[in-house]
């Protein structure tokens, strides 16, 4: 469990810097191109580590596993991250970061439906505190949010939560880095097929007529220069590769609900990083909201640790009686 919280910390730091870095390079790339290339390259970087992990666990990938990775890749790369990247283009990075952090609400629901994970009273109380904090940060009474940006971000959050929960079983079997690697590579291949279809003249014309220019004639491996290469490497290698691997490792070591703490700490850390690196002002409502989120997150950690001690004590008692 302690190792799980270390992975949560790593994923939180990397994910909290994601919107800032994506915003700085988004003008240089088509959003679909950026999504495809960062997940494809991120997956390739993880490939040698994944192969080593498979050998150490003496596991092999069968047809059913590949089908699962194809589903996970489609859910994450093709669906969730396209919604996410488009949302970053339509509205402020900080707003996307905060709203996307609502996905633990959906994780809790999906984990209950698909994994039969219990919903404890402290989970619900923590969620209430954290949702109140998020609402205070968004401050809907005074901030005009793009309806398109809001919808895209919510869709990204819902589908990412589903991706995480559906990947829990595979992560328990293969490990987080394997699931991340293969779902990224296969999801990127699925996206590449869609990109190539978008190059067909008739399809391209149709997409453009529906104002879906971002999906038509998507360029590949262009836009890189000395001015953005360091930011690109950070996004592709660290945020996309290491960040998602850490998230799944956290889920492997703890639970889907506990790993989702990443997205409660994220809206706390993201504004701080934005203030440090791009001088974004932190208003009073954001500070108050952050305090609510921190309270909810700390409450969850304390309750989970207490619950874990009780379970271990019960196991010890059962073993001693046998």
What characteristics describe this protein?
322 residues; mainly alpha; 80% helix; 0% strand; globular; transmembrane helix
In short:
The chain is an all-alpha fold and 322 residues long. The protein is built from 15 helices and no strands. The chain has helices spanning 2-16, 18-25, 31-57, 63-90, 93-100, 103-114, 121-138, 147-166, 168-174, 176-197, 201-209, 229-253, 256-259, 262-278, 284-321.
Largest sheet features: none
Number of strands: 0
- Mean pLDDT across residues: 83
Strand content: under 5%
The count of domains is 1
Instruction: Indicate the low-confidence ranges by residue numbers.
Output: none
Oligomer: single chain
* Form type: globular
Membrane topology: Multi-pass membrane protein
Family: Belongs to the EamA transporter family.
Domain EamA: 3-138, 148-301
Keywords: Cell membrane, Membrane, Transmembrane, Transmembrane helix
Description:
Helix content is 80%, strand content 0%. With 322 residues, the chain is mainly alpha-helical. It has one domain. The two termini are 26 Å apart. The mean pLDDT is 83.
Detail the topology: elements first, then pairings.
Blueprint: H1 2-16, H2 18-25, H3 31-57, H4 63-90, H5 93-100, H6 103-114, H7 121-138, H8 147-166, H9 168-174, H10 176-197, H11 201-209, H12 229-253, H13 256-259, H14 262-278, H15 284-321
Helix pairs in contact: 1-12, 1-14, 2-5, 2-12, 3-4, 3-10, 3-12, 4-8, 4-10, 5-14, 6-8, 7-15, 9-10, 10-12, 14-15
């Amino acid at each position: 469990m302690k190792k799980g919280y270390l992975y949560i910390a790593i994923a939180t730091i990397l994910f909290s810097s994601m919107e800032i870095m994506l915003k700085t390079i988004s003008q240089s790339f088509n959003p679909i191109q950026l999504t495809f290339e960062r997940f494809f390259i991120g997956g390739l970087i993880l490939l040698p580590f994944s192969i080593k992990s498979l050998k150490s666990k003496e596991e092999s990938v069968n047809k059913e596993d590949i089908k699962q990775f194809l589903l996970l890749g489609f859910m994450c790369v093709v669906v969730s991250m396209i919604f996410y990247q488009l949302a970053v283009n339509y509205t402020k990075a900080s707003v996307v970061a905060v709203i996307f952090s609502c996905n633990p609400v959906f994780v809790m629901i999906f984990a209950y439906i698909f994994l039969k994970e219990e919903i404890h009273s402290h989970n619900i109380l923590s969620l209430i505190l954290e949702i109140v904090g998020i609402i205070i940060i968004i401050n809907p009474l005074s901030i005009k949010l793009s309806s398109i940006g809001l919808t895209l971000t919510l869709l990204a959050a819902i589908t990412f939560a589903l991706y995480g929960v559906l990947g829990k079983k595979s992560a328990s079997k293969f490990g987080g880095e394997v699931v991340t690697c293969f779902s990224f590579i296969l999801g990127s291949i699925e996206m590449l097929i869609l990109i190539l279809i978008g190059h067909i003249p008739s399809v391209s014309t149709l997409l453009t007529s529906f104002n879906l220019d971002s999906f038509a004639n998507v360029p590949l491996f262009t836009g890189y220069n000395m001015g953005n290469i360091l930011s690109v490497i950070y996004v592709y290698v660290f945020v996309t590769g290491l960040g998602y691997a850490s998230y799944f490792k956290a889920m492997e070591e703890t639970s889907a609900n506990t790993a989702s703490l990443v997205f409660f700490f994220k809206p706390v850390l993201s504004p701080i990083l934005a203030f440090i690196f791009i001088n974004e002002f932190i208003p009073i409502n954001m500070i108050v909201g952050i305090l609510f989120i921190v309270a909810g997150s700390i409450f969850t950690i304390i309750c989970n640790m207490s619950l874990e001690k009780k379970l271990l004590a019960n196991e010890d008692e059962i073993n001693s009686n046998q």
